[in-house]
Each structure stands twice: as C-alpha cells, then as structure tokens.
Amino acid sequence: VLVRPNTDLKPERSHNVNLGPRLELKKTPVGAFTVDINGFLRETKDLIVFLASVQGAPHQNILDVSSRGVEGAASWDAPGRYVGLDVSCTYQDIRNATTSGVFAATNGRRMPNRPWLLGSAGARGRVANLALSGDALEPYFVSRYVHGFDRGWALGNPEFKLEMPAQLSHSAGVTYSLTGSSGQISGTFEVDNIGNEALFDVWGVQRPGRSFGFKLSGQL
After folding, report:
1. What distance in Å separates the CA atoms of residue 210 and residue 220, rounded to the nearest whole number?
2. How many whole angstroms separate alpha carbon 186 and alpha carbon 179?
3. Which residue in 54, 56, 51, 149 sits closest to 102, CA to CA?
4. 133: CB partners within 8 A, 6+ apart
C-alpha cells in the first residue's frame, strides 16, 4: 500500500480520562495476586488516520472521534515464585462522531484499521539454585490473540470489504541467569510464532513467520 502525501493535515487534539483500581495481595497462603482494571475515554478532534485501500491513500483528518473501552490484567505468583500466570485483555470502541463534512456519512461507524479486542495469556516457571548458587532457570510460554477487524469502513457488500483476519500466535523461551557478588549474567533463547501462523500488522503487511532468537546480557 502506497502512502500518498497530504500537506493539509491539521494537528490532532484530544481530551483523555483514565480511571481504574489496582489490587495487590502479596502475602497470601496461595501466593501473590495483582489485578489491574482501567477504563478509558478519549474525545479527539482532527484524528489523523490512514484509511488503507487496495493501491494507496493519504493520511487524513477526521473531525470528531470518540474512544472508550476497558483493559484489564491479572497475575499470580505461587509461593516461592516457582510458577506464575499472567492474563490481559483490552476492549476498545473507537467510533466516528463527525456530523458534517466528508466523513459524516460514516457517523457512528467503528473506526477502521483499529483492533477492538485483543488479549494475551502466559505461564512462567522458576527454579533457583539449579546447578550453582545464585543461578535460576526460568521457562515461559505466551499466547497472543487479536480479533479480526475491518481495514476500511463497514459499508457496502461484505464480500468486497478489506478485512484483517483473527490472529493467534504462541511464543516460548527459557532464560538462565547467574547472579554473583560482581554482577549478573543471563541468556534467553526464544521461539516466536511457534505455529508459523500468518500474522499481519494493521496495514495488512504480513509479518515474519516462525523465528528463533538468543539474547545474552550482563550487569555489573
């Protein structure tokens, strides 16, 4: 998709509100719990958007856009931190609120090219003093999900709409670290997109498939 120039773009302005509780229970008989819930509201003037087409399009301003939603995250660590679980989810409703001009015809429609439901879940483990004093082996597994969404306005024949399919991917890895009086060294091996799924960014460009990575770091 080619991005065409637009020298008439106006700066984006918005009013934002975020509100939500955070709960931490660190010393319970069954482990430590953390729960975060955040509700958000955003009223935007002249939102800068890129409305993808088959061949190309410029960035444009949409006069009024209303965004609201909720995001939550929770984690649990077993006593001794041997096992941990994490989960998160975001729902956002971003809609065109323009009542005049070019985009008035799509008033009330969900903004295209914006995921509206996404989440992740993961598990991790930790074994300390495995081979040496001060070392730790930490395996982990993470799943990520993005629900399908429209790349263009939800108008016309659904058969010809530009859509982004739902995406589910998994990653796994293991970190080995060694901490001593002079510092810490750690190495992480990870396999990303284990199932070699077809994943896309919001512009419809396919991302790399299965990949393998290794990272070595140190701290003095």
Report:
1. 34
2. 9
3. 51
4. none
Kindly report the number of other CB atoms within 10 A of residue 2's CB atom: 8
pLDDT tens, 19-61? Answer: 999 999 988 999 999 999 999 999 999 999 887 666 778 888 9
Residue 158: phi and psi, rounded to 5, are -55, -25
Do the Cβ atoms of 41 and 30 come closer than 8 Å? no
Cα separation values, 53 from 10, 95, 103, Å: 22, 19, 16
Q: Choose the weakest-confidence range: 66-75, 145-154, 197-206.
A: 197-206
Per-residue model confidence (pLDDT) at position 53: 66
Distance CA 143, CA 119 (A): 9
State the distance between the two ends of the chain, measured CA to CA, in whole angstroms. Answer: 46
Residue pLDDT, tens place only, 72-115: 999 999 998 899 999 999 999 999 999 988 899 999 999 988 89
Residue 25 CA from chain centroid, whole number? 26
Amino acid at 153: W
CA separation for the pair 160, 151 (Å, rounded):
11
Residue 34 vs residues 30, 37, 38: alpha-carbon distances, Å: 13, 10, 13
Pairing of strands 2-4, 56-77: parallel
